[in-house]
Amino acid sequence: MKLLHKIFGGIHLSWLKVIILAVIMGIYTGLINQVPFLFDTSFRDIAISFEVWIFLGTFIIMNAKSNLDSALKCFVFFLISQPLVYLVEVPFSGWEIMHYYKNWILWTILTFPMGFIGYYLKKGKWWGLFILTPILILLAFHYASFLGETIFSFPKHLLSGIFCAVTMIIYVLAIFSGKKTRIAGLVISSSLIAVLTLITLVNPVVYDTVILTCDAESEVYFDDSYTVYLSDESFGTLDVDVHKGETEKDDFYLLHALLKKAGKTDVIIKSPNGEKIVYEIDIRRNTFDLVKKQ
């Protein structure tokens, strides 16, 4: 507990330290986001989602000396770190990558009022829960998203989900000292985690996609009289849909899939007379590879 209070309130955070931290995090995020084998894992989530940046923002706020100091340091930290992420990526992805920075400009501007208001958390009063709760809710939804991703393609994004859940508890314990306030905060955090865990388990992530089309130029024929299925049905379900064109000649068929988890299985396309065409599908969270078997 002493370590938590040291991290969140016991560090002399000079302007030089804030700037160095911003540069380090910007460079690190830009570089880690370019490592191919870390694609779609927790290690690259820092370049996409908020949980680590919330931690750093809270760290700055809790070690600030005043409302204005908190607001300015938060703003400058994000003003330096966020564009630096994209600048580091330019040699790998070209200047077009800077186009994505516009998505962060508004958030960077908002760090000033958030830092100013967030400073009141240092008071440790019960009403500080009204400031912290929106952050806990945001983290809870991040947690649920990562949990869904982990269930679909275990163990990907597991560390990010754990990080969100753990920090939801840590912030309450580190910021508040009053017993009743801590209990209330822990009830809020644990309830959010429990409810969103249940919702995610009841409504698991599904990859809804089209894996084949059948038109005049297709190498394989199928229509709605064909039977289509996965050899291992735990991966999901298949069905044939008709895509309606302006005329009947423009109509074509789609092999539609609802995929439930990552991995490899076979796609079976069976004609009314019993002939089969088999593809191997390698399923990932938002993409797949399909190879026809001989």
How does this structure look, described?
The protein is of the alpha+beta class. It is 50% helix and 17% strand. The protein has helices at residues 2-7, 15-32, 51-62, 67-93, 102-118, 128-152, 158-175, 179-202, and strands at 207-214, 227-230, 236-243, 252-259, 263-270, 276-283, 288-292. A hairpin with an 8-residue loop joins strand 3 and strand 4. Helix 3 (51-62) runs antiparallel to helix 4 (67-93), helix 3 (51-62) runs parallel beside helix 5 (102-118) and helix 6 (128-152) packs parallel to helix 8. The chain is elongated and about 80 Å long. The model has no long low-confidence stretch (mean pLDDT 93).
> Mean of the pLDDT scores?
93
Query: How far from one another are the termini?
Result: 62 Å
Number of contiguous helices: 8
Strand order of the largest sheet: 2-5-6-7
Order of helices and strands: HHHHHHHHEEEEEEE
Characterize the quaternary organization of these chains.
single chain
Rounded to an integer in angstroms, the radius of gyration calculated over CA atoms is 25 Å
Sheet with the most strands, sense and barrel status: 4 strands, antiparallel
Q: Share of helix among residues?
A: 40-55%
Poorly predicted sequence stretches spanning 5 or more consecutive residues:
none
Broad shape: elongated
Q: Helix/strand/pairing class, anyone?
A: alpha+beta
Strand segment tally: 7
Strand composition percent:
15-25%
